[in-house]
Amino acid sequence: DVVLPKRNFGGKTNIPYFFQKYEIGTSASLTINPGVICKFLKQSYWDTSYLNVSKGLIALGGSTPDSIIVFTSLLDDFYGGDSNADSTKTFPATTDWSGLNFADQSLDPLCKLKNCIVRFADTGLNTTSASPTITNCSFNNNAIGANITGASNPTFSNCDFSENHNFGIKNVDKSFNINATQCWWGSNAGPVLSESASNGSLEQEYVTSLVNYIPWKTTGAINPLMGDVSLNGLIQAYDASLVLKNTVGLLTLSPTQQRVADVSGTAGVTAFDASLILQYVVGKEATFPINKVKKSSVDLLSEVLSVGNTSVNNTDEFALPLSIKNMNALLGTNIKLSFNPQYLQAVNVENLLSSTFMEFNIDNVQGKILIAMARSVALNGDRILANLKFKAIAPLSTVAEVYVTQFLANEDDCTLSAISGSITIMRSGTGLMTNFDDKPQGMAMLYPNPFKDEARLVYQLDDSSKWVKIDIFNLMGQNIATLVNKTQAKGTYSIKITNIDYPLESGTYIVKMQTSNYKESQLIQVNK
Q1: HEC per residue, 218-280
Q2: What's the CA dihedral at 254, 256, 259, 260 to 10 degrees?
Q3: In the 3-class helix/strand/coil scheme, how is 122-172 assigned residue by residue?
Q4: Of 316, 348, 343, 445, nearest to 403 (Cα)?
Q5: Does the structure show a pLDDT above 50 at 297?
Q6: Which of 51, 207, 275, 518 has its CA 20 to 30 A from that of 448?
């Protein structure tokens, strides 16, 4: 006989066993110790990867999370860690391996599963004229949870069937009425009786006829508690980190995980839920708002999120402060920022708050940054949350904006009060684009040009200038608008030109800049 013990290397426990095909012949049985993780993976779509039982399999796990026996995909990083060492490049999927197969030669008294999890298989458990006993087990994310063929009569008791795409239990040959009472079927409503496979759109599991599922349980044997986002039976800080990763798009929670993650009971899954989980973990709260008779809420002032402003030379790497004013008991925040990726390249988001969990996701193709922050201790007053690290990559001098497209303070939407940031990007010299370095002062190119609704014009002044006047003329020489007419000190300035302030019809116009010792003109095009 063969025994698979729980592995422990260098103080690390739950080191998984890796298999492609594992055969238990008729001359031996396999006993698996509590806490063992077995991982399988097909080599190709047409290949098979399985544990085949021709005599006996005894897998009796314990009731605690660290003693459950797991059969899963090699790509399942939750159990046993990143086994294929590729970070988040691959994810587990239904049919990653073929499943547990009990052959007709197997001896029923030697085939027992208890406190086991079987997932991401073609058929989590397949029997061919075999009748194993399965207790307190979870079959999830398989194509079929259990496939019963031949003269099989397995028994299922107090088991969980959830997120199996086609069937929870499929009694193929219907030689016996399969006993599967006191089981959880993904919903309080129990399973759906059907001979046709599910399309995966319902929470309820599908079962065929001749499966005795009455009575069923309304909570599963391994059904998660609110806050147990990892579904491992414990509520930990790790669960809060999963919530933050989900809110910034670094991972996607399953429907079950999303349900238990929304511990506030409002606004879906946000960073505020992560904060509530942290408060529970450190003992500041004994329960979650969703479990209270009257849901608690925090009265917030008008929190104002603002992105800093700066002027930089082209190709510079720089930091913009991200700050909040008027904080009142702020625990969690979700922030979405957008920028023009032709002008800016986001490099990093530096967390400036101690005792704060933060996750962020940068997309330099779309020009987006998603940030989620959560704490167990509330913040008040004014604080700088983070530094946004950018690199200026604009080919020409221009003004780049960093817009706030979402700002949730706890779960209150304060986006309308947010203040976007502005970065004036200049080439190292002054003057027009083609020969900027040769002139002491002048205008940068208006961008965009042509423009439809809004554009910006950047100009520079040196010490010799006493005043500046900038006008827009049509091609007939008529003055359409005066943008600037005043005394200004040395420096770089920008003007926003909008259709509301300066209603320009479609056509070509001339922008003229004059100082006490300098003149310059540029053509601009308006398209509507």
Answers
A1: CCCCCCCCCCCCCCCCCCCHHHHHHHHHHHCCCCCCCHHHHHHHCCCCCCCCCHHHHHHHHHH
A2: -110
A3: CEEEEEECCCCEEECCEEECCCEEEEEECCCCCEEECCEEECCCCEEEEEC
A4: 343
A5: no
A6: 518
The kind and range of the H/E element at 406 are strand 398-409
Q: What is the pLDDT of residue 276?
A: 92
66: three-class secondary structure by DSSP: helix
Amino acid making up residue 255: P
**Does residue 293 surpass a pLDDT of 50?**
no
Q: Torsions phi, psi of 455, nearest 5? A: -150, 170
3-class SS of residue 281:
helix
Residue 481 class from Cβ within 10 Å (0-12 exposed, 13-18 middle, 19+ buried)? middle
Lowest mean pLDDT among 76-85, 182-191, 201-210, 329-338: 76-85
- How many helices (H) and strands (E) are present in the chain, helices listed first? 3, 40
Sign of CA dihedral 164, 166, 168, 170: negative
Residues 6+ apart with CB under 8 A from 476: none
Task: Indicate the DSSP class of residue 417.
Answer: G
- Tokens 């002044």 found at: 461
Q: Which amino acid is at 449?
A: N
Strands 442-443 and 454-461: antiparallel
Q: For residue 419, give the DSSP letter.
A: B
Q: What is the mean pLDDT of the chain?
A: 85
pLDDT band with cut points at 50, 70 and 90 for residue 442: low
